[in-house]
């Protein structure tokens, strides 16, 4: 089972784009700051999680979500990779 539930605050307004082709689909990307409930001295207080929404959820994000809003996200972890302009392989993790 691959299910994630996160609660945090948006670090920026969602970035909305539309896919190419005959049937355009909205894609929203945003980052969520999730506070750590337990931390050691010197550790960061929050984790910053990248999130992606598609279709109607992306359109909802475009209309109603703003930087600083507290929200609850449910989804699944998806990993990927790409090669950047410098030829370095970059690994990604998104919800």
Describe this structure in words.
The chain has one helix at residues 55-64, and strands spanning 4-10, 15-18, 26-35, 46-54, 70-75, 78-83, 89-94. It has 95 residues and is mainly β. Strands 1, 2, 3, 4 and 5 form a five-stranded antiparallel β-sheet that branches. A two-stranded antiparallel sheet has the order 6-7. It is globular and about 50 Å long. It starts with a strand and ends with a strand. The model has no long low-confidence stretch (mean pLDDT 92).
Low-confidence stretches: none
User: What fraction strand?
Assistant: over 45%
**Major sheet characteristics:** 5 strands, antiparallel
β-strand number: 7
Average pLDDT number: 92
From N to C, what is the helix and strand string? Answer: EEEEHEEE
Structural class: mainly beta
* Annotation field: number of helices: 1
Q: What gap, in angstroms, lies between the N and C termini? A: 14 Å
Supply Rg: 15 Å
The helix content is: 10-25%
> In one word, what is the shape?
globular
Question: What are its keywords?
Answer:
51% strand, 7 strands, 1 helix, 95 residues, 5-stranded antiparallel beta sheet, single chain, globular
Would you spell out the secondary-structure blueprint of this structure?
Layout: E1 4-10, E2 15-18, E3 26-35, E4 46-54, H1 55-64, E5 70-75, E6 78-83, E7 89-94
Antiparallel strand pairs: 1-3, 1-5, 2-3, 3-4, 6-7
Short description:
This protein is mainly β and 95 residues long.
